[in-house]
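[SOLVED] Need 3D model of a two-part complex

Original post:
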Amino acid sequence: MGDRLEQNLRALAACDPARAAALAAAVPLEAACMPAANGDPTLVADGVLLHSRHDPRREAARWALAACEQLAAAGEAEPTAVVLGFGLGWHLGALAECWRGGVVVVEPDDRLLRTAFAARDLRPLLARVALAPAHLDEAVVDAWRAPVILPHAPSLLREGSGLRALGERIAGRVALRGLRLRVLVVSPVSGGSHPITGYCARALGALGHEVQTLDLAAFAGGMDAIDGFSPKAHARRTVRQAYGRFLGTGVLAAVEAMRPDLVLAMAQAPLDGAVIEQIRTLGATTAFWFVEDHRLFPYWREVVGAYDHVFVIQEEPFLGEARRLARGGVDYLPLAADPAVHRPLALSSGEREALGAPVAFVGAGYRNRRVALRTLLDCGLRIWGTEWEGSGPLLDVLQRDGARIATDDCVRIFNATAVNVNLHSSTWVDGVDPEGDFVNPRAFELAAVGAFQLVDERRLLPPLLAAGSEVVTFRQAGELRELVRSWLARAEERAAIGAAARRRALAEHTYRHRMERLLALVCARDGERLRARPRRATVADAARLEGGSPLGCFLAELPPHTPFTLDGVVRALQARAGDLCEAESILLLLHQFDELYVREARQ
Amino acid sequence: MRKVLIVNLTRFGDLLQTSPTIAGLRAAGDTEVTVVVERNFADVCEGIPGVDRVWPIDLDALGRLLLADDLRAAYHAVAHELAALRAERFALALNYSSSRMSAVLLRLIGVPDTRGWSMSGDGHRLITHPWSRLFSASCLTRGQAAFNLVDHYQRVAGITAGTRRLCFEVPPAARSRVAVLLADGGVGPDQPLVAMQLGASRDIRRWPARHFVAVGRLLHAQLGVRLVLCGGGGDRPMAGEIVAALGPAAVDCCGRTSIAELGALLERADLLLTGDTGPMHMAVAVGTPVVALFFGPALPVDTGPYAADQLCLHAPVACAPCDHAITCLNPFCRDVLEPEAVTAAVIARRAQDWQGLEAAARRWPRIAWYRTGFDAEGLFDLAPLGGAPPSPAERLRRAHRALWKGELDGTSPRPVDGPPLAAEAAALRALAGLARHAAAQAARVERLAGGDADVEVLEAAGRELEVLDAAIFRHGAIHEAAAQLVQLHRFEKENVLGDDVAALARATRAQHEALARRARRLADLVAPRAAATATVEAGGIHAGVA
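Solution:
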């Protein structure tokens, strides 16, 4: 290792030893630094010239001047300069000379950093500029005081640097600061994504946003009854479409009443392009989380073009296809678990007997599962779920006559089962789908429960859950029997793997994490528009204006985000105990007056 | 100087109904009366004798602030008004608006002697006068409503020998303007006029236009009178319909008068034909006789024209009085008051022909005809015309009246005419039994609370008392005869405040004893015990539950 590299690494290690170690182990870029005309090193990486061929310092000085102007114009007392892209650090050094405030540089590419660390003495720079952690989570971003994002353009041009996406996330996270959004979450009428609606709504509420859920499950019966109108499929389809349009009208009425900032529609929510457009004209930003397999549910083609933001659980080539049709952004957003629901439970012996088993599967009876699970019939298998009719010997182990299993029972079953089999469904192949990519919600739910699972290999699984330490994977259905028998005998190891899975799920795979990312991405593109929307005053706003008046003192005692409306305030004061103070009584009087004389006029 | 505050934020008719109370308060001497009123009705108060100060509250402006979502401004507007009211240091506050809003308002003003609806410190409703509680109970049990609203108002104010008429002084300027208005309509100064009040607060309370037309035709033909049509601007379409049918016989003054001018107009008329409306009270207040039509939710006993010798025609159909909140799809009660009968009523009343009215009542027995008056205690009363015996419902009402006069005024109850109401008496005696049982349980709770009883034993005793109370409430819901007593009992329970369990139990015991006493007395009024026993001996199955 060269002296320069070693010195730079030592300087970095003083504040971030882990990052220094990672850089030391990184392989440098194939491209080598070259001297500019003035002798300073510059670099072409992935076909992009990161600094001037002539005079990197002068170029850097111009960049830094513009950056300082941007920082000064931010209107904050001491903003933090957040630079995207390290390059060889020339721009960072220039900025550190003209800017007295904090400077952080975000550079996820350890190979580039290693190259830079070997190219020049960066010790003065490292003493002044903080290198953001490799794993940049929301807590790190939130800790930056009044961040102003300053992209180093050449760095962002490098394909595969990840800087553009990272920059968007940071911008979104920053845009979300202090922003309390009004979000309407629209469920499907039925189906697997229905419970996800509730998880998302709860997570958004926990993040401090005002959430209303439009649960359309009440209309499932109507949808089911449509089959009774006609034996002709075409006729039923027509009626179903009309029913969907009727529900869309209802959603519009809800949007008009609530005036949300954001409408988040889950997969199969009954919103067609026309309705989505009308929602947009009412001023709401629209987002769609398509939590299904794009190959099995092609309706996405008809709607992705209507939404402002689309989120999917599959990556390329679907991501590219969707982006070509979309009007706004399309981003990968995997499913998750809700720790309030999916958690370890202490079960009674009766529950364990009723719900437990050495090995179990919970889910619908797709063909690939019927074939694979047959091999486990003599392993103490129990099967739970619907659509197992005609599955032959599997019916002997099918529980509750194939009734739908409620979420609460699913969680108890996960807890009570020694080996949970999680085989993703397939309609076109028996056993494991070799092209299987997305990870189903069950994988995260089992992980959050701390349960041990055998899960089929999926292309997108490795970055989410580590095979061997958090889950155990299998490539072919034929492996299942041996795996089950082997793992049934390893209780302690199963427990350790389950515990590791739970730690991972709680750290990275909750719906709160997903909603944070979703909102960050939405705000990265629409943050300004969302901030500009008229905000309903909160009691905190009103308390500030009132100062130390009796009204202000009372309002200051209420939860700060309570809407400063008569309904909001009266609801809050009704939750309090004891005698009413004068401010409470006056507000109560106004509420009664409003109900008697004003409410009707408001409608 | 005793400063009295009257809060009446309802309609102008209710303000006029406050006039005897105001007169009675002033008659007591050394009293200054301030009336808080909605700004639009401030000029009504200018015409009520005895009002020293009118305190208008601009509810429209407050409503505009709330519609504009300017909650802070609305708050400060109210706070400012409250500060001004408190600075007056009133000695007595009378809340004649039975609403939660007014209850909060009275609490906020904080007059030590507040009567009517108010609020406890922790936000619960209080109704702090027995006559107010009775009035509120009567509103929920209209079948047993026994007193006129004006008498409730007076009794709450502590007035027992008040004016037996509403009062409004028409300003001379209003008379002049009305004379011009009538002259424009071709009505000379000596032209006989019958006024017809068209509008009402709700459609169910509005007598149909075709009936007014029929009556107008007959009156014009038989008496040569002109018909002056009164009402608000919203009644102009109906007035147009009537004018089209009656031609020059009718003069349309709808929406063309202020309230004072309405008073002048009614004063000029020989008689007013009206439903249960604000103008009805105005006519009484200016001394013009009325023929008042009561149907739907309206009852002559509680909102009838407060003066002697007024005529009330009531449609006593099975569903009367209906609830104010319902939308009736078949208001046939309006047609029970046939135009011919109403015409006969107007003609006879205008001529003060009470014998003629008795005959009319006999001719149209489906209608209940009443002559207003006052009883020996000065309380508004209705004397039935036509000689028909009182219905069981009427007798039950009279029994309630006798009971409350005894309970609240100390008057010796007079027996109610008519055969005994054995079933009602049985229900009332059963209620008395439940109440006695509850009183005994409350006494037990009081003993336990005062001693060293285990908390669990005390709580169990309290729960038993709650079960008994639930049985009492259920009994009141099932048996109409018991409904008002039970409702009043509920309001009385609301007024028991404090944390001392023994004191609470003591107050509860007293209330249950009062309920038992009242139920027993009412039972004796509707079916004296000797009569009840006779009924049992005769094989009756309902009496006998003591």
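Edit: DSSP finds 26 helices and 19 strands in chain A.
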